[in-house]
Specification:
The protein is mostly helical and 169 residues long. The chain is built from six helices and four strands; from the N terminus they run βαβααβαααβ. The strands form two sheets. Strands 1-2 form a two-stranded parallel ribbon. The protein has a two-stranded parallel sheet with strand order 3-4.
Length: 169
């Protein structure tokens, strides 16, 4: 098995974080793909969330998940096999209310408040509308295994299997 590391560039990655990504992928001898959505669209999404909710974390979570999931599905179709994804998402919902949100309905309903923003998202080459609809009907999109019955995406949520200790290095 030859893993592929996928990184989502939300527009706020530090130089230190980028160096760490390259360092770890070099040590592991794996390829790294960075997905960077259109910055103009991302700015509009951040602005919309700040305007209507006062927060913008949902944008990174939703767009990061959508672009990575969409990329993995396209890659799976291209190579003709079901991909295995090891993610850093926690499948258990343990965030504090109103601090960190990953509800796809909340995300979509919020961007529909802003004229044409939903349409702009759908027209973005990284987002498949069928995927978006499937994720909207799931209470937690991090545990969706597939929306496309011809291909199953298998997920391992790494934090669910490890005890994270932020004080340990």
């Amino acid at each position: 098995m030859r893993p592929l590391a996928i990184n989502f560039d939300n527009g706020f990655r530090s130089e230190y974080a980028i160096k760490n990504l390259h360092h770890i992928t070099n040590l592991l001898e794996v390829d790294l793909v960075t997905i960077k959505p259109d910055w103009g669209l991302m700015r509009k999404l951040y602005k919309c969330f700040l305007k209507y909710t006062g927060k913008f974390c949902t944008v990174c979570n939703a767009i990061g998940y959508l672009t990575i999931f969409n990329y993995v599905l396209q890659l799976g179709h291209l190579i003709g096999c079901s991909p295995l994804v090891v993610g850093a998402w926690v499948s258990k919902i343990e965030e504090q209310p109103d601090v960190y949100s990953f509800d796809m309905k909340y995300f979509i309903n919020t961007i529909k408040e802003e004229n044409n923003l939903y349409e702009e998202l759908i027209n973005n080459c990284f987002i498949d509308e069928d995927l978006l609809c499937a994720l909207m009907n799931n209470p937690d999109p991090r545990v969706v295994t597939s929306y496309d019955e011809s291909l199953i995406v298998n997920f391992i949520q790494l934090p669910d299997y490890l005890n994270w200790d932020i004080k340990k290095r």
